Amino acid sequence: MSAHDVAAALAARASEHSKDSPYGYVPTEWICILFIALFAITTLIHFGQTFYSRLWWLFGTTVLAGLIEIIGWSGRLWSSISPTLLDPFLMQITTTIIAPTPLIAANFVILGQIIKRLGQQYSRLSAMWYTIIFCSCDIIALVIQAVGGAKASTAVQDNQDPNPGGHIMLGGIAFQLAAVSIYLILATEFLIRYHLDKPFERKEVAFPKSFTLDRGVKLMIIGLAFDGVFILIRSIYRTIELTDGWSGRIIETQVYFNVLDGAMIVLAMFTLNFFHPGWLLGKADRWNAKNPSVADSESPEYPKNAA
Q1: DSSP letter string over the chain?
Q2: What is the structure's pLDDT at 3?
Q3: What is the pLDDT of residues 38-83, one digit of tens each?
Q4: Is the dihedral of CA 289, 293, 295, 296 positive or negative?
Q5: What is the pLDDT of residue 5?
Q6: Per-residue pLDDT tens for 212-243?
Q7: pLDDT below 70 — which residues of the chain?
């Protein structure tokens, strides 16, 4: 048998499995292995960086996101070997939809810290409320997506219509997309106001006029910008995917998922490895300072216009 015949036979077999696969295609084995390896590497690095920085909240954000992604892609790897089984398909439905949620929460926390350092008078929300509001939105989105994923999984197991569960998941991801979009808008406004030295007027609190933008904070802002773009792309894709329906062309096209979901979250996680808050903003003792921006502003080394 020639190589061409072998390739044709494999293609025919894959096509036959695709008809019976709940994905509408058979996940490519080597791609699943690649993503498992990439998520394992970045998660292990985040694990070590968390101990280094003693920023223990990273265990519940970046590390947790990586672990959930590994579970999800392990389910897809299982499906690549046994494409007609429901268990691995159900395993990856909820995990891949909720995995980025803890990662998004990390971005919210980091921006809150940057606001504390550069000056809360430039922010529409205080650093504390910024973290509380957006992390709460993240938790709400997580719960909605998990409930929708569980409902859709149960429907698939019972040979019923999974679209009602999909609609709930869509509500969760759309809510998350809205929260991420507002976060990016407010973050951009904060940076513009800081650059122009245009603070909000608040009679009840007297803040010092301005603070330094040192190299570490600059790099952290760059890292958050890249992270935000990757997460936004993924959220837009997931929203469109679920809007298109449980058996739509988008959800049944593997390359869209690999590039616009898997690759975006891999890039987002590695971005925070390279632009790590523990390196760029300091270890836990500096994060736990009562008010870094006020403390910094009282030092002659930290006037904004000294650079």
Answers
A1: --HHHHHHHHHHHHHHHHHH-TTSS---HHHHHHHHHHHHHHHHHHHHHHHHHT-GGGIIIIIHHHHHHHHHHHHHHHHHHSTT-HHHHHHHHHHHHHTHHHHHHHHHHHHHHHHHHH-GGGSSS-HHHHHHHHHHHHHHHHHHHHHHHHHHHHHHHTTS--HHHHHHHHHHHHHHHHHHHHHHHHHHHHHHHHHHT-----TT----S-----HHHHHHHHHHHHHHHHHHHHHHHHHHHHHT-TTSTTTT-HHHHIIIIIIHHHHHHHHHHHT-HHHHS--HHHHTSS-HHHHHHTSTT--GGG-
A2: 45
A3: 999 999 999 999 999 999 999 999 999 999 999 999 999 999 999 9
A4: positive
A5: 45
A6: 778 999 999 999 999 999 999 999 999 999 88
A7: 1-19, 202-211, 289-307
250 φ, ψ (degrees, to nearest 5): -70, -45
Q: Whose structure tokens read 């990439």? A: 38
Measure Cα distances from 85 to 118, 186, 237, 305 in Å. Answer: 53, 45, 26, 63
Token couple for 147: 């409930």
